[in-house]
Predict the structure.
Amino acid sequence: MVRDNLIEVLHEMEEVTKLFKLEPFDIYIIGGGACILGEYTSRATLDIDFIDLGYQSKYGKVFALLRDYDMLEYQSTLLSPKYKERAIKLDEFRYINVYIISKEDVAVSKIIRLANKDIEDLNQIIPKCKKEVLNRIINEILNRKDLFESKKEGFIKNLKKFREMYDV
């Protein structure tokens, strides 16, 4: 049901994009939205987080349809520079290009907080992940030069606990 609601909102975005004769665009959904759309977890959420790809202001009327959303700067987000290579394109959309980040990218992005809801998500996601991919993503993030230092420190702080909890 929640997945269907998210798909419906994204279809509305697609229709508004066409209605206003805006050029098609890419959107990379991360976090809880990716978990629901990719069926990585069963947790219900209607908020959508996505990476700011430098959208022009004219797309604001399209993103407003998302209601609860966060447009995240790449420099402050725990993503590998290669997240787009692993992202999964949702075939339901013909005009806009909707991608969700891979389950491994979602899992690694949750390391920075490791709050109870993150751990609940990780308990569902990790068994479906390839550990060699998780380790590759972790190393790619550790090698990022453009990541805000405070984010990198938080990531490193929780990394040991994550590795112990999930044998990664």
Observations:
- The chain has one domain: 2-166.
- Residues 2-166 form a domain with the Beta Polymerase; domain 2 fold (CATH 3.30.460).
- The radius of gyration is 16 Å.
